[in-house]
Write a structure and sequence with these properties.
Layout: H1 15-26, E1 32-36, E2 44-50, E3 53-59, H2 72-82, E4 92-96, E5 106-110, H3 125-144, H4 161-176, H5 182-192, E6 203-205, E7 214-216, E8 224-227, E9 234-236, H6 239-251, H7 266-272, H8 280-303, H9 315-329
Antiparallel strand pairs: 1-2, 2-3, 3-5, 4-5, 6-9, 7-8
Helix pairs in contact: 4-5, 4-8, 5-8, 5-9, 6-8, 8-9
Length: 333
């Protein structure tokens, strides 16, 4: 079964120019075959093949993007720094900052193969439990990396990280909203009033750690073989990652997969994670708020005619639902 599809008409690139560039830069031969990964809702991801050699291209979406968002150069540099110490992060091959090649900055990285769980799976309960446990253990391994010893502290400024996150995503909400959503304004104020202190130890933060951003081995799906989408990674508070995982897993899943028997519950996730999770409820609220802003940014691109992807047409309603979910979660925080 293939994990790619033909490229959407509205997301075609100058393939001839790109192929010529990659042949020169990476010493490749032959014709270039192109397909597109259908998952994801923001950055565009393509599969490129020269004979048996495959690589993955990542570029920003078409049209104007929010400041500091979709930073492909930063994502490339994060992967280059992290891959040697966390091999589940793909190895990047090349960064191109010459927008004349395909119209934007882009990078290419290694292609990995395996299973990405999105809308359905047919695992038994025991395998679901094993995958759940290995997901949490992988996140803990990422957070256990000695940032200073490996020179990764250059990837971010941990002091005030959560405060910058809350204020930054509030700014993105105001910059992308297409209608008033009172619950979002209420949540922004609620979060601003409850900014937590910096953690005792800052860690590498993935920023979007969830089930469909990991790849499972085809021959043993309990084993992870890849962790993708490092665009929002930073050095900061590890509970941000845990909140995001719980957001997608428990509170606002994009599908019903993790509601099937065997997948860990919220309590089981928190029990497995080796750290102080006493204040995690605040981070869950922030994660759902952040997801609402991400969805709003995507919907705004659709509403402004910057994409014709039909998946985005109803996302405005999703923002309202997420704001309601996040507001309900504040009662536990």
């Amino acid at each position: 079964m293939t994990d790619t599809r033909p490229v959407r008409d509205s997301e075609q690139l100058d393939w001839e120019k790109l192929a010529a560039y990659l042949r020169r830069a990476l010493n490749l031969d032959g014709e270039m075959r192109v397909s597109q990964f259908p998952g994801g809702h923001s950055n565009l991801t393509y599969d490129l093949a020269f004979g048996d050699f495959e690589l993955v291209l990542r570029r920003p979406p078409f049209g104007p993007v929010p400041p500091r968002a979709h930073d492909m150069a930063r994502e490339y540099r994060v992967l280059a720094a992290v891959h040697p110490h966390f091999p589940l992060a793909p190895q990047p091959y090349l960064l191109c900052e010459d927008a004349s090649v395909i119209g934007s900055v882009f990078y290419v990285m290694e292609r990995r193969r395996g299973i990405v769980v999105r809308n359905e799976e047919s695992f038994d309960e025991a395998l679901r439990r094993n995958i759940s446990a290995n997901m949490i253990d992988t996140l803990a391994q990422l957070h256990a990396i000695d940032v200073a010893a490996h020179g990764l502290d250059a990837l971010g400024k941990p002091a005030g990280f959560v405060a910058r996150q809350i204020r930054g995503w509030t700014e993105r909400w105001h910059g992308s909203k297409t209608s008033d959503v009172p619950d979002m304004e209420w949540l922004a104020r609620w979060l601003e009033e409850r900014i937590p202190p910096d953690p005792p130890r800052a860690t590498l933060v993935h920023g979007d750690f969830k089930l469909d951003n990991v790849m499972l081995a085809s021959d043993d799906p309990s084993r992870l073989v890849g962790v993708f989408d490092w665009e929002m990674s930073a050095i900061g508070d590890p509970l941000v990652d845990l909140g995001i995982l719980l957001c997608y897993w428990v509170h606002a899943p994009m599908s019903d997969v993790t509601r099937n028997p065997g997948w860990f519950t919220r309590d089981e996730i928190l029990a497995r994670y080796p750290g102080d999770v006493s204040n995690v409820a605040l981070y869950e609220v922030f994660a759902v708020f952040k997801l609402a802003v991400v969805i709003q940014q995507i919907y705004a691109r659709f509403a402004r005619g910057q994409t014709d992807d039909p998946r985005f047409a109803q996302m405005g309603e999703r923002v309202v639902d997420l704001a309601r979910i996040a507001k309900t979660l504040t009662e536990a925080a």
